[in-house]
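User: I want to check something. If I give you two sequences, will you return the structure for each one separately, not as a complex?

Assistant: Yes, each is folded on its own. Here is the first sequence with its structure:
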Amino acid sequence: MESKSLAILKQYWGFQTFRPLQSEIIASVLQGRDTLALLPTGGGKSVCFQVPALQLPGICIVISPLIALMKDQVQNLRKKGIDAVAIFSGMSHREVDIALDNCIYGRIKFLYLSPERLYSDLVKERIRYMKVSLFAIDEAHCISQWGYDFRPPYLQLALLRQLHPNTPFLALTATATPAVVKDIQDKLAFVGGAVFQQSFRRGNLGYMALAEDDKMGRMLRMIQKLGGSGVIYVRNRRETQEVAQYLVNHGISADFYHAGLDAQTRSLKQDSWMDNKVSVIVATNAFGMGIDKPDVRFVLHIDIPDSLEAYYQEAGRAGRDGKKAFPVLMYQQADRDRLWENFEASYPPITFIQQVYHQLANYFQIAYGAGKGAFFDFDIVDFCKRYLIDILPTMSALKFLERDGWISVSEAVFIPSRFKFEIDYQELYKFQVQSAKYDPLIKLILRTYGGVFEYYVPINEYEFAKKLKMSYSDVVDMFGGLQKLQLASYLPKTDAPQLEFLQPRVDYRNLFIDATFIQERKDVKEKQLKAIYAYLDDTECRSKALQRYFGEKDDTYCEVCDLCLMRAHRQDIAKKLRKEIKLLLLQDQKTIKQLVDELTIGNDEVKVRVIRELLDEGAVLLANGFYSWKTPF
């Protein structure tokens, strides 16, 4: 069985060996066991479900909250000749219907679903008729309310167990505390499950947490010293541009990235950084998921992340090639204060959450008793401006509304335009003969795409405009015209988050919001913030502090973090001081002032500390106010 897994790995991925724990996880899955895999960022989690799924009969259903990552994985699988499809928010009912049919009757091997889709009766009913070999749950920590990134739609995953009770689950995550590990297994109803966990210690990473008044200057000096490729994480979109421009002005090849950019621009910026055309990318936390760039020499945070889980994931994008790299967190007291203020603002009163629901329904013109299943592009900035409310508590209100099953909100993701003919080939040919206007467009569609009569295909209107020597707007009008004539379905591209109403609209005063749950989440978040503060204030070892937080015991020092380096430096100074004290006192006895003044290494505090240590050890003697070195008789 292991040799077959390795053969698949070589055939499709070109690797000669598995990474640590991958083969053990795959073997567990092939034995039909519920399995939890904790692998670090860049540890190769996707291989753990893709390789066994290719050996098992039937389809593997993958649940992921990251739509952009789902799309990338589907694209990569298709390039390898493996049939895969993704269903997520923003797709039309017809598109979903066709994709699910192909999963039941076609050759689809992987179905990627966003968790919100499990609210759909259509999806649940179709999954019942699929031959499912494996359920793979990516970012599995999202199912736990004790985790740092709880996603209410993940609670729907228990439905999968009801639909296929004998199909094993593989849950995957990079970060989970012991409480979250237990919660994942409980929520997914693991039966005799196995847990595989790599150490959270990354020996090649020199973690640093620096209290710094001049962040920009320190950042510049570090980049100039370290060189190579790196990521700088900042708090907001404005800062991405400001910091990138600062670096460019100082001769560093840099660019900025955030979720507010259109998909094509984000892709170009990411590719430039991946190809080392740009050395440094300055980004919000929207950047990095699914990116596996091995030669990242530094990841700098110039603000404090919300949790140690988030920090560990983002910092872990450094040094994936195993060579020395530096995750550095720079902060000021004002950053610590702001983090706490944001925490307080993230748990608004119940009345505010109810008001946001009422305003959402008005914003999208949903009538009372209507709206179930309706989804819309959602611009939260415009929404908040319209109703004069702050974004942070509004975002939290949306999450609590989602948790209680009123709405579903997806991430911002680019969905290209899609097209499908709704008539057969003979009817289309008759239309072409009668319509010279549409004939060139139809011919180009048929030459460019296969399967356009069976399922939706992604299209690029700009490419059609270029080939047909027409304007972009004219091409869009023609695609729209084919839809108006009921000859085809045309779904224009979108690049916005999707908001879906899961229940008919009710009067906001009758809207149930679980206040107990909100208080529990607030308590969890408070513990996470205190853990971040404890990490910043740690005096032992950064790696040990991270391991301790994730429930891993390790008494060894990493020897490469800022704390270990400072300790080594202090020990080196103390060693040199001991030698110098011995030389001076062997020459003559001295008062404390004479001895401290004549020592050339360290500051006065360090000098006095070492003298006291030598006194305690009995190597130095004190008599009548004079110090001398104890000499053997």
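And separately, the second sequence with its own structure:
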Amino acid sequence: MFRTSIYVFLCVLMLQSCATSTKSFETSEIALIPKPNSFQLHEDVFLFNAYTAISVENKVQEKAAKYLVNLFAPAANFNINSNNNRASIYFIEENSLAPEAYQLIVTPKKITIKASSYAGYFYGIQTIRQLLPVSIENNTIKTNEWLIPCVTIKDAPRFMWRAFMLDEARYFHGEKFVKQLLDEMALLKMNIFHWHLTDDSGWRIEIKKYPLLTEIGSIRANSEIETWGSGKSSGKAHGGFYTQEQIKVIVAYAAERNITIVPEFDVPGHSSAAIAAYPWLGTVGEKIEVPIIFETFDVYDVTKPEVEKFVKDVLLELFELFPSPYIHIGGDEVNYKFWNESPTVQSYMKQHNIKTPADLQISFTNNISNFIEQSGRRMMGWNEIMGVNIHKDVAAKKNDKNAETSLAKNVVVHFWYGSLDLAIRAAKEGYGIVNSLNRITYLNKDYEAITLESAYNFEPIPDGLEAKYHKNIYGSGCQLWSEWTPTYKEVEYQVFPRIAAFAEVGWTSTNNKDFKSFQKSLKKIQKRWALLGINYAQVLNN
């Protein structure tokens, strides 16, 4: 039941009451990532303690209040008090604000979070989280009260797409680790978790109609280690997958943190694990094993009606699991030699006057895009789906011809490789663009290849793109491909702290960014990570 100014009392959070404090914060003590677009620090503080209570007016605000309570409960040495009728934290609906925008006003007597949606309230809470001492992250030490500086913040993200991608097709990490990553994304106000769940080396999601995808496709007998072509192996099998029930739990966990999970189901390439489970999906028609080296051993034969049905069947189950408006179909690095060497594929292409493998891929991709659109979603894929050969420097791809067929317009092109001229062209043609240029955003690269500063200075809008097309640049994502990061600690080392730099790239306006200021703020964030046992790389000065 709700009524105007209904009071929800916290036990978790703390106070204001009659207590007073002479403490004031210095600007140097404030560490916020991403940096707010408008920030004012005032004298005095607000005190959180057992007397603090929250006022909410609707279910959306109640959801945000519940998250706030649960966030701090483990570290608070007091219980919920439902008898105090004096609220000191207010959620105020302000419909003039953009969906992810918020205003945070902290005075000695109260905290006010203004927003037009759950996302805005949530991001106001994350700012409060960063303004509080790092001890709130440590549930082994109970605290009676916390101080927060008095501030006025008006803030909103620069881009709608602020993503982190985890590749679990190569190495499966599991629900607990993914939830920890989601928590840190939330702290940094990132809103898209791009989940790479299928590839040559493993199939990581239960599909009930095709059980062999996980019974066979999720397990490989061995793993190449160190680097491509090393000749060395782990000497042990690797496997694992998410049940549909686990997926539902993780999707709900992400949604509570204003994070949309965008699944990636790779077609028509990077499909050897699926073909190992169901050989009829491929061009060779013979049994293959899930590869133990990170290479493609076959691709889907997209000329077969049964393959098209398989892809659509899988998508139907993904639609049920992921409410995301976007479904990522990969589409990168398709090795056309399998189609060129297949008599049935070649016969199909001649019969349908399809001149090149690139045209065949676009024809299939457009078909899938239409199916996804009919289901109320939008297809997304890596920029090879445009039919342009971006791999002329790769021996196996250098002779591939560009397609004459046009990619369907209701598609988001995920730019990762090649000249930015292609991204500019796509934006001018009206495609939505997510700019994840590999030489800057691929976190599997070492810290010499992508320094913290170069990550921070990444600009998603390509230089030379006219301002009227900037709306077609949705944002950017940073990606962790996991071929050579089999353990949690190795993943963490590659991701942290560069993920914080990319968070500020996606959120903060360019005229408000400053790398030195970011470095100072990062020191406090790193103390939080240390309390949580996150194995971040100590690279503040690069």
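Because they were folded independently, the notes below concern the second chain alone. The mean pLDDT is 92. The first strand starts at residue 6 and ends at 9.
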